[in-house]
Structure formats: structure tokens, C-alpha cells
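Example record used in the benchmark description.
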Amino acid sequence: MIQSLFIAMPMMVCAIFAMELMLSWLRRHDSAQGWLALWALITTLLYSGHFIFFHHANDLLPLSDTVYVACNLAVYPLYLIYISELTDNRPISTRLPLLIVLLGLPLVAAVVVCATYASMTPEAIDRFINTYLYEGSRDGLAGVAEVQAWIHDATHVLFGLQVLGVMVAGIRKIRHYNHRLKYIFADTEDKHLGGITIVLWLLVVISLFSVLVNAIGRQWFEGSVLLALPSLMFSVLLFCIGWIGLSVRSYVFELEQPETEPVEPVVVHKKYQTAGGPDYHSLAEQFEKLMNEEQLYLQHDLRLDMAVQRMGTNRTYLLAALKRELGMTFNEYVNHKRVAHARKLMEENPDMLKSDVAARSGFNSQSAFYRNWKNFKG
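Model output (C-alpha cells):
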């Protein structure tokens, strides 16, 4: 009974979040949540294969093993698609050739495994299940049964390569997204995808542990108390991913302004133009004037577009002016000004609470205040 509970735990966690994410997607029409719901559904099917395997339902194993192989090769590409939905202006789901490659491989693998099972005699299937799947051995396998074993070995190698690829691509996408936030928003603490660092490390941990489990083989956990370890670990990690997925909000649509296109409907003012192109010096001067005279940096949730619209320019020119003339991103400049304002407040009001100092200096939280105070304390 207890063993069955451990076996079913990851499957039940995924099934619950699959339903929750699907209902949330139907309400919000959030494409990222739609892909995460599909990921949770496929992961549920994956762990149903574990359930059948560990309960020795041999009559169902040819079908469940085929589904397991397909799902095993689909979960990480689906998770990468989910990350892409959160971080990319042009996500993987809009690039049909890449989408076909990522999701076509699991389908091809399933067809090959299914066709191989169909060409095996009942005796060969029984020998393959008991020898290869349960014992992790090839002793006595021959003909089509041996071919099936090599096919399964190949899918394990492909799975490992997928994990490595998703880890590298996922890290790059998340880092790029976080970097872009600093150019548009003064406050980024609540915009890192609602715990994106946790999501990233969960992905890494699950990836490494999945590779380890596949390398060891499921048969080593059969009938052992060791089964509780991967079951609990996967359940907790899957719960965290589902929980974060329900609450996450992406700002990718607000970052999707192309770097070479002006913000519409703003037209660049002639005073920022010279015969040789944009006058970055004048842009930087006007930006600093706007910040200093109106203390715009004290405004909570300040965004670059607010300054862009006030100045009559576009994102591209203003970002270039900040980089060339001031050597800072928008986020760095604003928070540098806020720290200077906070320092002045504390000098004039030594008894003022730090929370009040943070709020009156434009920071959304004390943690943001302390982090920026450390960065710009000089």
C-alpha cells in the first residue's frame, strides 16, 4: 500500500496541476500556461508508465512502454517551449520547423517502438520485458527482441542529449530575458517570472536526477525502499514547477519592441536629430533634466516608455544615449538616483525607518532598497 502510494505520487501531482493549469489557461488564454498544462499532462502519462511498470502489469507494458518512450522524449522539449513562451518575443511555438523537430522525434520514437513490438511474437515480448525492462540485461535476447533493446538504449542517449540541450538553451533564454528587463523597467524584482531562479534550478535538478535514474535503470528501484527517494524528490520538484507556473507572469510582450523600431505613435522630435543622425548628447541631457527637475525616479514602477513619451523620442535612441553618454542602463541610472536620494533622506532624518526611506526613494520593497544600496553605496 505504501509502495503504491509512492509510485503514484508524482503521477497524481502532475495530474492535479495539469487540470489546474488547463483551467487557468481557459480563463486567461495565456499561451505559456497552455504549454505548461500540456507538459504536465505528458508528464502524468510518463509517470503512469512508471506505475504500470512497478505493478508488473505485463499485459499493458507493450502499450505503456511505447507511451513512456514518447513522453520521456517529449517532456524536456515541452518545458523548453514553455520557457520560450515566457522569455522570447518569437517563441518556439511560432517557428514551425523547430517545433516539428522538437515534438516530431518523440512521435517517431513511439512509432518505431510500437512497430517493433508489433513484429515480435508473444514469447519474444515476454522475454524482452522480463530480461531487458526488469533485469536490465540482454542475456538470451535475439532477433527483434534484441533490436528493441538497442532502440531503447538509443532513446536513453537521446534523452540525455535533450536534457543537456534544454539546460543550456533554457539558461540562455532566462538570462537574456532578465538582462532585457533592466533596459525597460526601473523595478525588476517582481518581474523575474515570479521565481525564475527557482524554476531554472528546478529544471537543472530534475534534469540531472532524470539522467541518473535513466542511467541506473528503473529495475534497480523495484521493490526497494530506495523508490521513496526519487518519488518524493520528483513529487516536490514537480509540485514547485506547477505552483510557480500557476502564478507566473511574463513581461515579454512589453519587451517585444524591436531594437531598431521607434515606439508608436511617438515621433522623434527634431531637436534630437543632427545631420549625421541622432543627437545622443542632447538626448542624455534632456533625460537627466527630466529626472532631476521632476524627480521622476521617485515614481514606483517607473518604465523607460514613460520617459520616452515625455521626451518625444523612441526606445532605441534613448537606450543608445544612456549607454553612450552615461554608461548605464535605464535600471542602473534610476536606482543610482534613488540610492542617492535615500542617502540624503537618512542624513536629514536619521530616525526615519528604513522602510519609509525605501518607499519615499521610489523602491517597491526593502529588499530592493538594500540590494541597490549595496550596488551603489559608493
